[in-house]
Amino acid sequence: FPYRMGLIASCMADMILEEAENRELDIDTIVGIAINGIPYATLIAEELGLELAIFRPHVEKVGVFSSNYASVMNKNVVIVDDVVGSGKTLRKAITATKKEGGNPVLCVTLVNKRAQNDIDGVPLRALIRTRVI
Predict the structure, then answer these.
(1) At residue 88, what are phi and psi to the nearest 5 degrees?
(2) Structural domains in the chain, sorted by start
């Protein structure tokens, strides 16, 4: 189903472009959160012609960026994942990005299970929002 993932990633890329235009942002790098955020981030980075960085969260610690991909230092980054629930993984990615000298300007997910529109002050946008009734 890579074709369908590509269509979803294109929609996510459109959201990023819209947000960048509305907020007058220059975006340098797309950060994919391992494992499920990587395919979307890869397709988005390719479509937008941007660098790709990979973040690997750790259970007990914050996590690390893969040295095989772009650095986030001095870059405006968009963090991409598939689903946000508690927000813990995105928080780790935001913290690690700042620690590495990057500027997280936006988080984009396929599904948002939270009521909030940001995580630690970083705007959160999703294609689908779920709510518990």
Answers:
(1) -60, -45
(2) 2-129 (3.40.50.2020)
Q: pLDDT digit string (tens) for 55-108?
A: 999 888 888 988 889 999 999 999 999 999 999 999 999 999 999 999 999 999
Tokens of 54: 């990979």
Report the pLDDT averaged over residues 37-50: 98
Average pLDDT, the chain: 96
3-class secondary structure for 30-98?
Answer: EEEECCCHHHHHHHHHHHHCCEEEEEEECCCCCEEECCCCCCCCCCEEEEEEEEECCCHHHHHHHHHHH
State which amino acid sits at residue 74.
Answer: N
Residue with tokens 């948002």: 112
User: Looking at per-residue confidence, does 65 or 38 come out higher?
Assistant: 38
In angstroms, how far is CA 54 from the centroid of its own chain?
10
Contacts of 7 (CB under 8 A, 6+ apart): none
* Side chain identity, residue 16: I
Cα 65 to the chain's mean position, in Å?
13
